[in-house]
Amino acid sequence: MIGRTAIMQRLWSELTKPSPSHLSVVGPRYSGKSVLLQALAGRMQSEESPYGTVILWDLGHQTPDSDEAFVLAMCKRLGQGLKEVNEECAELLLSTGSTPFGDLQEVLSMLLEEEIKILMLWDGFDKPLGAGRLTRNLWDQLRELAQSPSLRLVTATRRPLQELIRSEESVTSDFWNIFDVNSVKIGPFDDADRSAVLAAVSTCPFNGGAKTELANWTGGYPPLFLSLINQVVAHPSQQVDNAAVNEAAEGDFGNGVSGILADLWGDCPEPSKDLFRHLVERGQLNISEVGKDERDRLIEKGFAKVTGNKITPACRLLERHISSQGDDAGSMVRLFGEWADYRSNIRGVLQRRLSQIQNIDDRLKRLIERSIEDIPDYPGECLANIRGIADRALDLIWEAEFPEKREIPSKWISDWQYEGQKGIEGWPDSFPTTDRPQQIRLLQLITGAYRTQSPQKAKSVNKSAYYLLNSIFSFGNFGQHLDGEQVPDGTAVAVVISCIELADCLNQPALTQQKT
Fold it and tell me: Residue 453 sits in which domain range?
């Protein structure tokens, strides 16, 4: 690892203070999260470290797909890491049977008595969170384990943890509250990082103009910055000036990093892409003219930078890449004429449509954004996590329809019974708080969707919201029980479109006044 001194010092300070924190490292693809965790693991194994063992767990590969699999894998990782520290604890975890969680609790208690601390580094934590198959029960169990002074956790993800959770039930777990409120963000190299990198090539010094051009071409983003330096020093000179950097960048160098640029550009939502194109055309914009989410997704990758109250483009390599790919608004035929083209470009359409809904609930928006990101490559995961969207929509509806007390007026029950509606027994006494299918039925009744001519009792939602939500809920049930069935890409697209249009139906003052 080169540079990142300030970030490493913060990690060290937070993990070695009298009451160490649980930490979340957040950074885009290729920003160096794995490198940082590996370096942290090395430093935390030094003699000055308070930790008896440090365990680096790559959750991006062989990802646990159930609560039981996660706990068993955690037992195995901890057991292997404790072999040289406490053989008894290691053996207990490696031979765990039907009570793995209980064994973890027992081991942490034993380690606490012996004043042995464990640091676990969870790399690629996005993968199990994004799959949406782990439940609140697991997170609550992990919260209980993390309360032990013997265990500290550091996670690494591309987005903040709260934005990755798919389930409305899981998001309420107290596990997420154990992490320091300010995540450790990793992105482009700062001035100190760049100086550390250039110090490593001191035999080929870069003058002030060369350093400026390095930043202008790469935005300081690690793989781009380092690759361009390697290109320059492949033809060493007594001193590197701005002309030498420009010559290296303008040659065939861009082809070598095109894959990285394509991945980073593909990770940008369409509104952020539109912003970058606008910045290239205008040169700069006032911060007040730009949405925070759109600009943050560019800044974190070094594609744009903020100086004072202005935001400007910051990566010429990206500008050249976009130009060479013919990346623009394009024509309908080029973008959607063939199935492969449709499949490649439909995500952008969904992102743009979602961005048009101005007053959408923050939590609902994040859940829909995650589902859009699953298209086109993970249609099965998309459907598996649709239930979270339906659950959040229902919660918003009931907060608006019954803001003070969850109580269905007895007059409504009488009206529905008179009209011959079934399955509403017991509602006057209790609201179906945990029964989502019954809530869908209630939504049908209050919107009058159960018959052609029926008075609507709902204040904030209409029949369109019911029909959309009923369909989404059904697909959510299907997604929870795929049993190996392949989900067509087009089906996932249709469901996500329904989710977006449901969000628009809920785009009413009564439903959007409370933001998460």
Answer: 344-512
